[in-house]
Amino acid sequence: MSLSLIRKGLDLFSEDIKEGGGAAGRKKPKSRAEPNSVMNRIGSNRVGVKKQVRRIHGTAGKRRNRATVKNKPVKSAIEEYRKNQPTSHLEKNLAYMLGKTVTAEAKVTEKIVLQNRGRQSRDRPAEEKKKPQEKSLFTEADFQNFQKEFFGRRVEGV
Could you tell me how far CA 98 lies from the centroid of its own chain? Predict the structure, then answer.
């Protein structure tokens, strides 16, 4: 042994003698703690003691009673069902529509109605086809000449 190790040992021993000396200076053996204490439930590996104590006691505050899956809150099925229920906006829409007093012009509303109709043929209004005036190959003079030749004279009023 080296001299420095012996000195360190004596220094430690001398501190014990100064504190109480002799038999009175000896440390009392630790009394066994109650078997259910937190420290007895923690493993011999002393790394992460705070975390283990927290786990045993349970976390404080709002995290304590909240069910989680991989640290994500579990949503209540009842709350999800209520959230996804269809809500009626009828009253709100009626109040909005009845509150407006401004009306659009007839041309504008007609345009909007036409644009909102579908592109199917049954949704389109029937268009009136304009028939072109028939043109005769014969002129009025030709008809009068025909009457002269056929009847020998001009027929009036017929």
Answer: 31
Give CA–CA dist 56/126, Å, rounded: 82
CA–CA distance, 57 with 48 (Å, rounded to integer): 14
Question: What is the secondary structure of 100-142 as a DSSP string?
Answer: ------HHHHHHHHHHHS-SSGGGSPPPPPPPPPPPPSS-HHH
Beta bridge partner(s), residue 68: 73
Q: Please write the tens of the pLDDT for every residue from 65-93.
A: 566 667 777 778 888 888 888 888 999 99
Strands 72-73 and 68-69, sheet pairing:
antiparallel
Q: Is 99 helix (H, G, I), strand (E, B) or coil?
A: helix
Q: State which amino acid sits at residue 12.
A: L
At 128-145, the pLDDT tens digits run: 888 888 888 888 899 888
